[in-house]
């Protein structure tokens, strides 16, 4: 299985493609309704003053989610990333 | 309310028909932040009716627009991201569509975020309802390098597509014509779209659809394939309906879904709902191929993002947030003061006019002390309420409110609340001067019922506009040198208590997981004046309605409780006798004064006339003694006037004494006395008790009741100085004053708010809970403060 890391671990200003979503139930539905699906490109545009929630940019709009919700969203590990 | 509106619409359809006009109901739907309400306002303007959906608190707006030879009755559905019910709003949108079957749906999309917005559109198409698309905010999209081939999109989807800029009205008329045409041509026929959900789901969906068709399962409401899809999507509402309609088939369908789910998990490591969403987005991507083009603007930071760099900055963000909140406070009070004074003067004049026009008696008392004082007290705050709502509407419409929620979510979560709880708190008086009634209503934006209940129950702890005059008065009495600090302290205490109590509630009676904070941060936009005006007016109107209905009724009840049964006859006679005696002396003096010209002459001739001397003796002795001999000549008539004043003051004092005695004898007074043994623990005497009981009706009543109880006659909140003196003279200890302020801050919400709590939570249990819990909580705290305070400052 390919190595993935969660959105929580991404830095502000970083861009990546969503590879996998492990959320189910209500949260999973909510995430998908908002357009966070595998293949979508996201960019971290900011973090709230207490580092949580996190703001994402997704095709034409901005979304916020909490870190513990971002944990369910995985992006592919970039080439050249140190483990 | 909405049902009556519907009936009214049906009734008025006949005259429309006579004019050769047709009436069609059209639903306005779309994602939140897609500009739906701007379009609704542009279409229908101020002619819209606002109400609630029957039995639910979600707002319902209905308005009419003429489009050619058709009149469209436009129903503004609540914003939704999906038709698979997640929030109460989304459920309402779906139920309206299947139950009311509008002639067409106008789907408003944000052209700049077309992909996400089309997710809802695809679901409308799967339902089969006649559809018209309005691509809103085209100006913004074009600026951001987004190009949409509208003709091609319309051809692929098979429905009219209009480009819109709802803010300026561009394309609005074309859209209404397209909606009218679609509604006419569809003739109520629904044509569901069928899209493929891949090799794993398609066979199952086909199989399920066949069974559903064979048994006419829920047929009159939903298309068969759509039901099958909802089962796949694990939609709890549809599954429940299914179980009730045909348990056998429902069980089979559920088993079939489970089978697919197991297969998917084993082979692909995913589950049906996710596959459905992926295929829908796949379908959207294929539709948009050749339709949507984005100029590569490189790493150009959008305008909104640039503002966010500052407004949600780690340090500057919170600083600016507090500055904004402080500014709202300042603006509200400095600007609001002027019209508030006018209104109060107006009510004062009205009160005087009625007072003069009517003879002394019950009716006058009812109108002046009950109706005008009660309603006027609430109406006086209308300018403040209006300004605060205008500013809040500005924050909401501009997109900043979402940032406040974003910045505060982490803090609020500690207390079991949601970032979105900020709004209800602020409206309720988090910035002193709000009103808990619209605050409780504003909690509708919260999705989780648990967080919502916690917010609704704690929002009334804030320093609402009605508590303000009471605090201004009490702070002036007990903290004469630190009144402003005391006021600020009260506001902070309101916040602290709201957060602590909500934490208590969330870890006991309303326990449960927190809801996801997957929330859109809409781009910053300059709100339209029209939108601001409409939003402000809608909320202000709710407040005025409260004054006109509940407060009016309760004011009358409170007036009655404070008037009846009145003084026993013997006591009444004693007062009347004393009044009669003084009145006689006044009459005698006035008669003498009428003859003053001669008396004056006489006084000039003989400075020590015996008559004048006798009068002087009767008057204040000290006065007579300090009068210097050389000036005595001119002082003689002045002394007579002074005496007249003294007598009139005495008469007034007796009247006040009588009023206070009558109050003591009244129902409210007896209640106050009966409560005294308990309230003593917190340092409240029976007079305070009456005011507090009256304050349950509306906190505005507290000041005027204190005035009557401390025998001052009617007291206006703004002219509280003599009351403050009286309270100071009454020698109420500091500890009791502080206990009183805390009690007023926290005890039972006013009656209109309690009613709102009952309606908003959908259960009277919570209304009763907030009344009893808050009062007990406030009392315990007040007792603690009084007891400890008495020990510390004996």
From TrEMBL, chain A:
InterPro entries named among the record's database cross-references: Fe-transptr_FeoA-like, FeoA, FeoA_core_dom, Transcriptional_repressor_C
Gene Ontology molecular function: transition metal ion binding
Protein name: Ferrous iron transporter FeoA-like domain-containing protein
Top-level taxonomy: Bacteria, Pseudomonadati, Thermodesulfobacteriota, Desulfovibrionia, Desulfovibrionales
Annotated keywords: Iron
Start and end residues of each Ferrous iron transporter FeoA-like domain: 5-77
Pfam families documented for this protein: FeoA
Keyword Acetylation: no
Iron in keyword set: yes
From TrEMBL, chain B:
Gene transcribed to yield this protein: feoB_2
Keyword Membrane listed: yes
Binding site for Mg(2+): 41-42, 44-45
GO molecular function (one): metal ion binding
InterPro entries from the UniProt entry: Fe2_transport_prot-B, Fe2_transport_prot_B_C, FeoB_Cyto, FeoB_GTPase, G_FEOB_dom, Gate_dom, GTP-bd, P-loop_NTPase
GO cellular component, as recorded: plasma membrane
Function of the molecule: Probable transporter of a GTP-driven Fe(2+) uptake system.
Segments for region (Disordered): 593-642
Organism: Fundidesulfovibrio magnetotacticus
Basic and acidic residues bias: start-end ranges: 598-607, 614-623, 630-642
Family annotation (NCBIfam families): feoB
UniProt keyword list: Cell inner membrane, Cell membrane, GTP-binding, Ion transport, Iron, Iron transport, Magnesium, Membrane, Metal-binding, Nucleotide-binding, Transmembrane, Transmembrane helix, Transport
Residue stretches spanning the membrane: 315-333, 371-395, 415-441, 453-479, 486-505, 730-748, 768-793
Pfam families: FeoB_C, FeoB_Cyto, FeoB_N, Gate
Record-given protein name: Ferrous iron transport protein B
Residues annotated for GTP binding in this entry: 30-37, 55-59, 76-79, 136-139
Main subcellular localisation: membrane
Localization per record: Cell inner membrane
Gene3D superfamilies, A to Z: 1.10.287.1770, P-loop containing nucleotide triphosphate hydrolases
Membership in a protein family: Belongs to the TRAFAC class TrmE-Era-EngA-EngB-Septin-like GTPase superfamily. FeoB GTPase (TC 9.A.8) family.
Domain of life: Bacteria
């Amino acid at each position: 299985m390919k190595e993935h890391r969660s959105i929580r671990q991404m830095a502000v200003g970083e861009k990546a493609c969503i590879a996998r979503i492990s959320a189910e139930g209500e949260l999973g539905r909510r995430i998908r309704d908002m357009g966070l699906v595998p293949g979508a490109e996201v960019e971290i545009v900011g973090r709230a003053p207490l580092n949580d929630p996190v703001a994402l940019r997704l095709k034409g709009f901005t979304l916020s989610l909490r870190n513990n919700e971002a944990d369910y969203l995985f992006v592919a590990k970039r080439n050249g990333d140190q483990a | 309310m909405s049902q009556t509106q519907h009936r009214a619409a049906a009734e008025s359809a006949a005259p429309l028909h006579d004019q050769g006009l047709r009436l069609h109901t059209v639903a306005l739907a779309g994602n939140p932040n897609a500009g739906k309400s701007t379009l609704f306002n542009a279409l229908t303007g101020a002619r819209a009716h606002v109400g609630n959906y029957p039995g639910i608190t979600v707002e319902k707006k209905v308005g009419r627009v003429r489009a050619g030879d058709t009149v469209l009755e436009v129903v503004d559905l609540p914003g939704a991201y999906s038709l698979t019910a997640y929030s109460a709003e989304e459920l309402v949108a779906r139920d309206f569509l299947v139950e009311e079957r509008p002639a067409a749906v106008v789907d408003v999309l944000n052209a700049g975020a077309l992909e996400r917005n089309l997710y809802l559109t695809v679901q409308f198409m799967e339902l089969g309802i006649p559809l018209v698309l309005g691509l809103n905010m085209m100006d913004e999209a074009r600026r951001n390098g987004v190009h949409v081939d509208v003709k091609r999109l319309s051809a692929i989807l098979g429905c009219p597509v209009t480009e819109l800029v709802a803010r300026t009205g561009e394309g609005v008329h074309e859209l209404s014509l397209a909606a009218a045409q679609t509604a006419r041509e569809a003739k109520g026929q629904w044509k569901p779209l069928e899209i493929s959900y891949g090799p794993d789901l398609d066979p199952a969906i086909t199989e399920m659809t066949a069974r559903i068709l064979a048994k006419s399962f829920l047929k009159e409401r939903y298309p068969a394939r759509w039901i099958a899809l909802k089962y796949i999507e694990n939609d709890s509402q549809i599954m429940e309906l299914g179980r009730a309609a045909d348990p056998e088939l429902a069980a089979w369908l559920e088993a079939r879904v489970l089978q697919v789910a197991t297969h998917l998990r084993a082979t692909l490591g995913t589950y049906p709902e996710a596959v459905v969403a992926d295929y829908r987005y796949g379908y959207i991507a294929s539709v948009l191929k050749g339709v949507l083009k984005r100029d590569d603007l490189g790493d150009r930071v959008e305008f909104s993002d640039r503002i966010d760099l500052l407004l949600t900055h780690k340090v500057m963000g919170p600083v600016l947030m507090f500055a904004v909140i402080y500014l709202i406070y300042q603006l509200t009070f400095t600007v609001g003061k002027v019209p508030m004074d006018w209104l109060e003067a107006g009510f004062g004049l009205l009160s005087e006019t009625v007072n003069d026009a009517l003879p002394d008696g019950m009716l006058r008392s009812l109108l002046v002390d009950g109706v005008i004082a009660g309603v006027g007290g609430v109406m006086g705050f209308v300018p403040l309420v209006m300004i605060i709502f205008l500013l809040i509407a500005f924050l909401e419409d501009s997109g900043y409110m979402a940032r406040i929620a974003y910045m505060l979510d982490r803090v609020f979560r500690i207390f079991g609340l949601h970032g979105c709880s900020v709004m209800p708190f602020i409206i309720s008086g988090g910035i002193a001067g709000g009103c808990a009634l619209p605050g409780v209503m504003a909690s509708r934006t919260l999705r989780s019922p648990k967080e919502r209940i916690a917010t609704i129950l704690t929002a009334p702890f804030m320093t609402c506009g009605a508590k303000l005059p009471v605090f201004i008065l009490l702070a002036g009495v007990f903290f004469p040198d630190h009144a402003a600090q005391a006021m600020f302290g009260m506001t902070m205490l309101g916040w602290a208590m709201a957060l602590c109590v909500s934490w208590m509630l969330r870890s006991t009676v309303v326990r449960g997981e927190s809801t996801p904070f997957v929330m859109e941060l809409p781009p910053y936009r300059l709100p339209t004046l029209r939108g601001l005006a409409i939003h402000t007016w809608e909320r202000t109107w709710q407040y005025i309605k409260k004054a006109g209905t509940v407060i009016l009724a309760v004011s009358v009840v409170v007036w009655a409780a404070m008037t009846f049964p009145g003084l026993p006859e013997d006591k009444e006679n004693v007062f009347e006798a004393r009044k009669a005696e003084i009145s006689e002396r006044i009459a005698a003096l006035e008669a003498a004064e009428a003859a003053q010209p001669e008396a004056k002459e006489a006084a000039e001739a003989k400075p020590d006339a015996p008559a004048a001397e006798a009068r002087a003796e009767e008057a204040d002795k000290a006065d007579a003694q300090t009068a210097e001999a050389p000036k005595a000549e001119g002082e003689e008539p002045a002394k007579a006037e002074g005496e007249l004043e003294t007598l009139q003051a005495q008469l007034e004092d007796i009247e006040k004494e009588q009023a206070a005695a009558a109050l003591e004898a009244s129902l409210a007074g007896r209640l106050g006395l009966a409560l005294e043994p308990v309230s003593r623990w917190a340092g409240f005497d029976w007079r305070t008790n009456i005011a507090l009981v009256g304050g349950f009706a509306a906190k505005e009543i507290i000041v005027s009741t204190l005035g009557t109880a401390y025998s001052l006659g009617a007291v206006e909140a703004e002219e509280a100085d003599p009351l403050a003196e009286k309270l100071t003279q009454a020698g109420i200890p500091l500890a009791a004053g502080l206990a009183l302020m805390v009690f007023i801050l926290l005890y039972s919400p006013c009656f209109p708010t309690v009613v709102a709590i009952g309606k908003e939570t959908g259960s009277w249990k919570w209304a009763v809970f907030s009344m009893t819990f808050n009062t007990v909580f406030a009392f315990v705290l007040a007792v603690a403060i009084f007891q400890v305070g008495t020990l510390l400052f004996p």
